[in-house]
Design goal:
Layout: E1 9-13, E2 19-20, E3 38-42, E4 76-79, H1 82-87, E5 92-96, E6 99-100, E7 105-106, H2 113-123, E8 131-135, H3 139-151, E9 155-160, E10 168-169, E11 177-182, H4 188-198, E12 204-206, H5 213-219, H6 221-230, E13 236-240, H7 245-260, E14 269-275, H8 280-286, H9 297-306, H10 325-332, E15 335-339, H11 341-355, H12 361-375, E16 385-389, H13 394-403, E17 409-410, E18 415-417, H14 423-431
Parallel strand pairs: 5-16, 8-9, 8-12, 9-11, 11-18, 13-14, 13-16, 14-15
Antiparallel strand pairs: 1-2, 1-3, 4-5, 6-7, 10-17
């Protein structure tokens, strides 16, 4: 690991196909006149998967990184017996990102957002003096806080006040991590707006969300884990989505695996799910609209409050732009489905009973959508299915801490801002934090 060399790659604009060098934290092609993601095109076409001691960096051939950071873990894939038997599936594979040591899963934030954080932070060029800004509904903030704290990377987080319970840690964080929050009653969209105000200061730079190739390719390690464990690209892929970035990442990994040539020639059908009643992408998809439909702000806030899986409440997802979720679903013959809170809770209980570990509400939504697909006959019993469990083992992990006599530590916001806070107020306060 000490002989690590930065990954060789170029960037490609999905809309135009133009390729160009990554001259430092590029999130888009400035020569492109239409909304589009950019992709990393790796010099190495056949991935050489390293040992588990590399953590997530076992997949570093296809991660756009300059270094390896301390403390990472990779997603783990196993063939299901218990859940598969209950659902009547012969070839169900679970890709698990979270805490489940008996299966080799050791993400201490218990979420696949760690895959994003370890990739994004490893992409930051050496000598970067600006401060990274990340807006989050909860799990992403916990992951970035852990990674930045353990690797001494300055970080400003922006999270809705109602989601602060998600910012729990095993121990106090390094002082390089600071938190601001949008007031109670606000949502993820408000936290994004607050982070954008902070970014008016030149001392800060945006993580970039779905536009950041490192975020997507970090999340793509779930598909890489599945394909390299199974030995082939799955027939179908189930995941709950808020932004859809994880599903886009799986699609992009699929395209790289096709080019690799050792994992088959199929495109995995993406089946993504939203938590009713917050279903803006489902509403657009069912009328075959690339453009998101109008979603009245008051209704969106109310719907976001109702759902169990708060991390799925993104009002501005990368859905319609070139290379976004709409394109991913069209290219793979995919589908968007919905699951209610009640269906997700039932699925969470079923997963815990059959696979022996608790899962997060978003992962329960995905599990519920798989159960519905089996029940309605929309999939074959012998399909090779990948169920992306994007978070789990939190109850197990916290129980272990409690048994060891450890209490959880919570990150508190330095400032809580009103949703109508001014640029001047936000910039003055956040600059004073560092």
């Amino acid at each position: 690991m000490e002989n690590f060399k930065p990954t060789e790659y170029t960037l490609e604009c999905v809309a135009t196909g133009r390729r160009f060098e990554d001259t430092g934290w590029m999130l888009e092609d400035r020569q492109c006149g239409t909304p589009s993601l950019v992709r990393a095109i790796y010099a190495k076409k056949q991935i050489d998967v390293k040992g588990d001691d590399h953590g997530i960096y076992k997949f570093h051939d296809w991660l756009p990184i300059h270094r390896m950071l301390h403390g990472s873990a990779a997603p783990v894939t196993w063939k299901s017996k218990g859940l598969a038997a209950k659902l009547g599936l012969d070839n169900l594979w679970i890709t698990f990102s979270g805490w489940n040591p008996t299966r080799g899963a050791r993400m201490t934030t218990c979420s696949f957002k760690e895959t994003e954080a370890y990739s994004v932070c490893a992409r930051i060029p050496e000598g970067e003096e600006r401060i990274l800004v990340v807006a989050s509904a909860g799990n992403t903030a916990r992951a970035f806080a852990k990674v930045c704290s353990e690797n001494n990377i300055p970080l400003l987080l922006s999270v809705p006040a109602d989601n602060l319970d998600a910012l729990w840690f095993e121990k106090p964080l390094n002082d390089c991590v600071k938190l601001i929050a949008s007031e109670k009653g606000s949502d993820y969209f408000d936290a994004i707006h607050l982070s954008n105000l902070a970014l008016k200061s030149r001392r800060f730079f945006a993580e970039g969300g779905a536009k950041n190739v490192a975020r997507r390719d970090g999340m793509a390690t779930t598909m890489l884990s599945a394909a390299t464990t199974i030995g082939e690209i799955p027939d179908s892929y189930f995941q709950a989505v808020g932004s859809g970035t994880g599903a886009i990442a799986a699609w992009e990994a699929n395209l790289r695996l096709l080019e690799d040539g050792r994992f088959g020639t199929k495109k995995c059908r993406l089946v993504v799910s939203q938590n009713a009643p917050f279903v803006p992408m489902y509403d657009a998809w069912r009328v075959d609209s690339r453009v998101m439909l109008d979603y009245e702000e008051g209704r969106a806030r109310r719907d976001a409050e109702i759902i169990d899986a708060k991390v799925l409440s993104n009002r501005r997802p990368p859905y319609g732009l070139a290379g976004g979720l709409y394109d991913a679903l069209k290219d793979t013959g995919g589908e968007i489905v919905v699951a209610t809170n009640a269906q997700a809770r039932k699925a969470a209980a079923l997963f815990a009973e059959t696979e022996g570990v608790d899962i997060h509400p978003a992962a329960a939504v995905a599990t519920a959508s798989l159960a519905k697909a089996v029940a309605d006959g929309s999939m074959r019993r012998d399909e090779t299915v990948m169920l992306n469990i994007t978070g789990g083992g939190e109850a197990l992990y916290k129980t272990g801490l409690s048994a060891a006599g450890k209490e959880l530590w919570h990150l508190k916001p330095s400032h809580v801002f009103a949703v109508d806070a001014t640029v001047e107020e936000v910039v003055e306060r956040v600059e004073a934090l560092f």
